[in-house]
């Protein structure tokens, strides 16, 4: 059975990023029940970023899978054998969450060769990067994955990018000090675009299942 790993780097279990990733998974399932879809919530794991132990670079024992042992170890091992990878994160201060950035350190550093600067993953696979953010396409369209996207391109292949803009921050703006935002404008944008964003995630799941994982 083929497997797609979904890595949720958002702190909230049922909000914007989680909803996009759930729709991606639904899109995969609409194509085939023979593709396993496994979602990992990084905020539910106890792990650290790269420890600079250099165990992945030891002569004769070099590995392109992180060797540091903690709750992230089995996840990284599963990704190494997967057939597709989806990463999802809200955009905080122009970047992915700290948990996603920490995860990406552990994922990508073992790929990097200090002999020739190449980046080699255990297995190439289709990748989708999902990002939810506060900014609008006109004002803030930065890529929160930053230089880590380059590592993904080199080691796994060029990813598909899905960005949901101008997302709701909370369900009830009246309860929070958020006067710099117009809830009415947010609501209007959401009514016009959110269903479309979810559909794009669903369609991306279908594409990965049909195009990349089809027999």
What does it look like?
The chain is of the alpha/beta class. The chain contains five helices and five strands, in the order βαβαβαβαβα. Strands 2-1-3-4-5 form a five-stranded parallel β-sheet, sandwiched between helices. The radius of gyration is 18 Å and the shape is globular. The model has no long low-confidence stretch (mean pLDDT 93).
Summarize the structure.
By secondary structure, the protein is α/β, with parallel strands linked by helices. The protein has helices at 16-31, 73-81, 98-108, 147-155, 183-212, and strands spanning 2-8, 35-41, 84-90, 127-132, 160-164.
Keywords:
215 residues; five-stranded parallel sheet; 5 helices; 5 strands; 35% helix; 15% strand
Task: Let me know the largest β-sheet.
Answer: 5 strands, parallel
Sheet-strand content, in percent, reads 5-15%
Bulk shape: globular
Order of helices and strands: EHEHEHEHEH
Going across the biggest sheet, name each strand in turn.
Answer: 2-1-3-4-5
Return Rg in Å: 18 Å
